[in-house]
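Priority: low. Protein: TetR/AcrR family transcriptional regulator. Input follows.
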Amino acid sequence: MARPREFDEAAALDAAIECFWTRGYEATSVRDLAERMGITGASLYNAFGDKHALFRRALDRYSERGTTARIARLEGQVPPRQAIETVLRDIIEESLRDTARKGCLVINSALEVAPHEPDCRQAVADRLGRIEAFFCRAVAAGQADGTITPVLPPEDVARNLLAVLLGIRVMARVQPERELFEGMLRSALTLLGPVTPAAG
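Result:
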């Protein structure tokens, strides 16, 4: 009969997130992780597998509590144009609160890990794809109700909005300035066209 785990798995994963987020994937050792998580190396392997498998679990948990959760709260609850702007403004505020300049774990991973780890690359691509898909759905809905210009295909607008989101996150690590981010946001919102009332 397997022995029950003697630690809080959710808390351990949160600690792993902080470790990877602060130090980066390559610079984080299994020893670093075990110490931060408050468990032995053997317990880490038994519960989560190797460092790579733990990283994937940490990335999943980080994503589900971040932008994915934000999208779930907004989509279908507020008008599509407002949902797009709210997500981008939330990213700006979150970036400005990041005084340690840790950035976004998903985007950090895209730059550090994805080029060398094919399955991590796919995991990061999946998460960014979910954000792009949200933008695409919102743009299509806004074009349907008349609040977003139909000049460009929703797919093109969505990719540009995702690029702006990524740009804000990257710039936040080197130049976290509200004026800069607001300018990026204004440029992004021009893709949606002038504000018009929704069709009744």
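DSSP finds ten helices and no strands in the chain. The CA atoms of residues 116 and 143 lie 39 Å apart.
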